[in-house]
Every structure is written in structure tokens, then in C-alpha cells.
Amino acid sequence: MASGATAADRDIPGGYASVRDAYDTVAADYAAYFPDTRAETPLELAMVDAFVAAVGPDADVLDAGCGAGRMSRYLADRRVRPHGVDLSPGMVAMARRDHPDLRFGVASLDALPFADASADGVLLWYSVIHTPPSGLGELLAEAVRVTRPGGHLLVGAQSGHGIRDVAPSYRRFGHDITLERHLHTADDLAGGLAAAGAEEQARLVRRAVGTERDDQAVVLARRA
Ligand SMILES: C[S@@+](CC[C@H](N)C(=O)[O-])C[C@H]1O[C@@H](n2cnc3c(N)ncnc32)[C@H](O)[C@@H]1O
Asked: Which stretch is the leader sequence (predicted)?
């Protein structure tokens, strides 16, 4: 997968600047609180494992919106070759600190610094959740663009309609940030992928568990 320059100094649309700033603020606590996939249930991990099986051993996979790198680690431990990118330099710094053997860079999902069809797969794991429904199609189309024909995409998000204020969750860590997330249904995710040329292969919708406020949706798709 050929990489262009990182986007650290590139303009970021206004809406994403506040998302970037919020994650820069909470990056160290996020990395400590989500060091691995213990927050995922076996159902989500089954979808990630299905994605890993679909892309195959030694696949080049873009972990788009990689945060502090825990999903890149999960992929690498299963013989996939991840390349993580994230909007937040702070999150990328945590990813590099905690996973120094893996590749990470700063980039926005709406302008991925990769050539067309350069990835065997793209993982969008809870990284489209700060994008409103009106912008979802653009991000999914960009992910499909960098996926080679026959390659796979996996998208996970909280399921439903509307907006949640995430800021209170971070107040217990002493952070006063502005951060909202947008709910997306499996139909929204699959529809956006299909519009960009990636056909749905499977989907998971499960009810909220524990302290979760929302159901969860995961869609696996294949670029035609
Ligand atoms: C809830 S975290 C999930 C991180 C990681 N995928 C994980 O599962 O731990 C959301 C991440 O998406 C990133 N993000 C949100 N919008 C983005 C965008 N437009 N471009 C790149 N990254 C974005 C944020 O910076 C943040 O690191």
C-alpha cells in the first residue's frame, strides 16, 4: 500500500477540528482505558475475525480512525499488516508509543493519503461516529476508493438515529471537552458502502449491554 505525505499540516474541515482537539485532549486516558479489545463483546470480535479471514494472511489493511492503535494490534496479532491513520496527532502519538512495531500516521477519513485500490481491506472501527449522516457517504466512498476490487471493508458504529453528548463520559477523567457522536443504522452503513461500490456481505446488530446506551451495528462489505 503506497502512502503519500501525512496530513498533519493539512487543513481539516471545521467540524473535524473540534473532534481532533477533543481526542488530542483525552488521548492518554483513552489509551489507558481502551488498551485492547476487552470492551468488545464476542459478537463484534466475530465480525472482526470474519473480516480478518476475508482479507487473508499478510493483507495490507488500513485501520482508518485507529485511535490509540488497539485494533491495529488485534489485526497484527492475526497476521494482517495494518497501517493505522487518525485525525488526532495525540491519538497517533499514543498508538506509536504503545505499538512501536506498527505503522501509524495522521490523516482524515475524508482525504486518505493512499492511492486508489491500494489496500486489501479497510477497517472503520467506531471512527465514523463523529460524522453526521450527511457526511457518512463521503467517508465511506473514500474508504471504498482505497480498497482494491475484491477487497473488504468492515464498519462498526453505535446503531440508531440521533446524537449523543460524549463529553460527560470524559468529565470523570477531569477533561472538559466538546464531543458528540452520531448514531448510524446498519442500513445507513450498508447503503453508503453500496452507493460507493461495495456490496454488503454480512451484518451484525446487537442490543446494548452493560453501561452502553445504544445498540451496536457492524457491516462487512466487499468491493465489487
Ligand atoms: C471512538 S475512537 C475509536 C478509535 C479506534 N478505532 C478504536 O476502536 O479504539 C474514534 C476515533 O476516530 C477518529 N476520527 C474521528 N473522525 C475522524 C476523521 N474524520 N478522520 C480520521 N479520524 C477520525 C478520532 O480521532 C478517534 O481517534
From this structure: none
